[in-house]
Amino acid sequence: WDPSATIVLDSRSSAHAGRGMQNSLEWAISAAASIGIHFLDDGFGIEIYEADGPLNISGTMGQHSSASQELVISRLTDLRSRPTTTIHHAVESATVDRPGQLAVAIMGRMNAQDANSLLRVRRNRAQGLAMLLDVETFADEPTSEQQRAQQLAGQILRDNQWRVIDVPRSM
Questions:
Q1: Of 63, 76, 129, 145, which is most buried by a Cβ count within 10 Å?
Q2: Mean pLDDT in the chain?
């Protein structure tokens, strides 16, 4: 048994809102760091994928991959929002790179297309967990249209055996 986890971090500019250190992207990055370090402490191999692809935190040592807490924190600290409008590169990289027992997605604003794309990440994995940030709670002026799209995306994931956690700003 080779425990491993794939973490998809939504780093698209259009998927996040808020200002300063309290914006939704900062929350997502912090969550990815905490989750990644937790898995490393439990002996999992991990890789983190963002909107433009892998963060390449896993080095290779023989046939085993390794990642360190320092490298996870370093790569995530340097991460900035991306102008990319889809999660295509993250999904493609995550499905090609390596199998894993667990897929964790930390997502900003989503629509049905994003959710259907994300389903591919879990295809060969036993479990999928999606943390859907309620980005509108981070925004200065939330819109109900974006909230409806987010709810639909969450339902698509739930209908396909993902565990979904809705994350408001106060969490």
A1: 76
A2: 88
What does the chain look like in DSSP terms, one character per residue? Answer: ---EEEEEE--BGGG----GGGSHHHHHHHHHHHHHHHHHHTT-EEEEEETTEE----EEETTEEE--HHHHHHHHHT---B---SSHHHHHHHHHH---SEEEEEESS--HHHHHHHHHHHTTSSEEEEEEE-GGGTSSS--HHHHHHHHHHHHHHHHTT-EEEEE-TT-
Full-model pTM? 0.89
* AA identity, residue 167: V
Q: What is the pLDDT of residues 106-152, one digit of tens each?
A: 999 999 999 999 999 987 777 999 999 999 888 877 678 888 899 99
Distance of alpha carbon 165 from alpha carbon 167, whole angstroms: 6
